[in-house]
Amino acid sequence: MELNVIKHSVVSPHRPVVDEADRRLLAAIQHGLPLSSRPYAEIGARLGLSEQQVIARLQWLKEAGVIRRFGVVVRHHELGYASNAMVVWDVPDEQASELGRCLAGFDFITLCYRRPRRLPQWRFNLYCMIHGKSREEVMAHLEWMVNHCDLQTLPHAVLFSRRRFKQRGAVYALGER
Amino acid sequence: MKPELSELDRRLLNDFQQDFPLSVTPYADMARNLGVTEEQVLARLHELKQAGAISRVGAVIRPNTVGVSTLAAMAVPPEALDAVAAIVSGYAEVNHNYEREHRLNLWFVAQAPDSTRLTEVLEEIAGRTGHEVLSFPLIEDYHIDLGFEMRWN
Q1: Which residue of B has its CA nearest to A106?
Q2: Inter-chain touch A6–B142, beta carbons under 8 Å
């Protein structure tokens, strides 16, 4: 089958350098910190690092922006946010950054990205994930955003999720690979 | 889970989504902040994790800093969707996989150590399922992740 792969070109202006030790550390906490009194000491013991080394490295990874958030990761669906929609717009490329930043400011948005079009199958290039307790709430959020960011005239599509087949954190160590 | 959440649960869920303590005893520090014991914090976090309300206490990594990832989509006939979704979910590289309301009805996120492996996974899925896989790698990320504040009302 044909596969459309677009090369990873622009990712971010400054990409922090993550070394092998960082990868091992992130892999060691990929399923979560131990729920025990001294979690960093426990992780360190697994990796041959001291508790202070683990803490210092995590601090650095946060400051460098590799870790964008460190803390409790909740599952929206289980907490009553039963509805989520991926909303996509076809916006002029040169306006994508400005509109993306406008959309990203709302607190019911969890993701906001620019991605490539795949013509003719897919014309959209700006993506937002909206969470709500119901379909109506998501649609109300959407209307608010559209008005606030002046998106009324831009083509869009609303892709509500129907079934969740899989959801978990990204895995940074895959067995033997 | 049917959320029967206590005040402690709510604060555990909302107040520590970012800046979890990077201290020697983080749970004891949380407990002090909340006016409860370390044992209570650990027990409730454990239970909330068991109940599925918490996925983990840990790091959310910025995309494409460690390995590479992409969002991919397929248009799958309804009668084949369960089987195709199972093949997709079967890959350890796939961490989210959803049915969505569109002609492109299966959307998943795949992540791999390098783009060679990522391409291999997508090609394999296309080959095994007989359906085209469209890949939409990130160009720009606009969202500053501060967690997600739950409103309980």
Answers
A1: B143
A2: no
The answer to ipTM > 0.90 is no
Secondary structure (3-state) at A152 = coil
| Helix and strand totals (H; E) in chain B | 5, 6
CA pair distance B50, A80, nearest whole angstrom: 16
Residue with tokens 């990130």: B138
Tokens 């209570």 label which residue? B40
pLDDT tens for chain A, 177 residues: list them: 444 443 333 344 456 678 899 999 999 998 899 999 999 999 999 999 999 999 999 999 999 999 989 999 988 888 888 899 999 999 999 999 999 999 998 988 888 999 999 999 999 999 999 999 999 999 999 999 999 999 999 999 999 999 999 887 766 654 433
Domain A77-160 class in CATH: alpha beta
CA triple B40-B152-B12, angle to 5 deg: 25
Angle between helices A51-63 and A20-28 (to 10 degrees): 100
Six-digit token pair at B53? 């309300």
CB pairs under 8 A between A and B: 292
Rounded to an integer, what distance in angstroms lies between the CA atom of residue B54 and that of residue A95? 37
Domain ranges of chain A: 20-63, 77-160
Q: Answer whether A66 sits within 8 Å of B142, measured CB to CB.
A: no
Strands (E) located in chain A:
3-4, 67-74, 83-89, 109-114, 126-132, 156-167
